[in-house]
Amino acid sequence: MSQKKKSNRNISLIVILIAIAGLVLYFSQKSGSETEAGTQSETIDIPFRKQGELFFTSPQNGDTLAMIDIEVADNDQLRARGLMYRRTLPENAGMLFIQSMEEMQSFWMKNTYIPLDILFVNRDKEIVTIHANTTPLKEWNYASTKPAIYVVEVNAGFSNRHGINIGDRIEFVIPK
Fold first, then answer.
1. DSSP 8-state assignment for residue 126
2. Nearest residue to 53 via CA among 100, 97, 94, 99
3. Residue 29 — pLDDT band, cuts 50, 70, 90?
4. 52-173 adopts what CATH topology?
5. Using 50, 70 and 90 to split pLDDT, how confident is the model at 68?
6. 132 Cβ partners below 8 Å, 6+ apart?
7. How far is CA 113 from CA 42, 81, 160, in A?
8. Which of 19, 91, 144, 172 gives 20 to 30 Å between its CA and that of 4?
9. Could you read off the pLDDT of 77-133 as tens digits, one per residue?
10. Sign of the C-alpha dihedral, residues 59, 70, 157, 124?
């Protein structure tokens, strides 16, 4: 092979290597910025917005066990996000999920940074399942043991601190 052909071949290889290195650098920076954006959105704390009040009551005498301010998740978009990405939830606050029908329900803690108690409630507003002290950021399901149409999420330990048990009831007020 002539000296000129070897030189042209070496130049071609160098150009190809530079092009490959440029592409690798471009795509690694692009995916890195997407990861950064995802991380940034995960760290944004969505403020609590009171939309109503919810009361936990005893079925025996109707006494109020506790009251919380609630945000309401009553459509697919709000139910899908729930309390994900939040870093804080006021002590006497929670989220009320109003499902479209009473059936077995299942929630997970993906992208949820706050440990929660998850209470499943039937159409008679009776608590049928309580998952206390759920683990943040886990993708396993916390399911109801009976059909439910409402789900209430509160800070972990809330149910225990206020003596809320299966069989207790909820009542809520959502002003229009």
1. B
2. 94
3. low
4. Jelly Rolls (2.60.120)
5. very high
6. 117, 156, 157, 159, 160
7. 9, 13, 20
8. 19
9. 999 999 999 999 999 999 999 999 999 999 999 999 999 999 999 999 999 999 999
10. positive
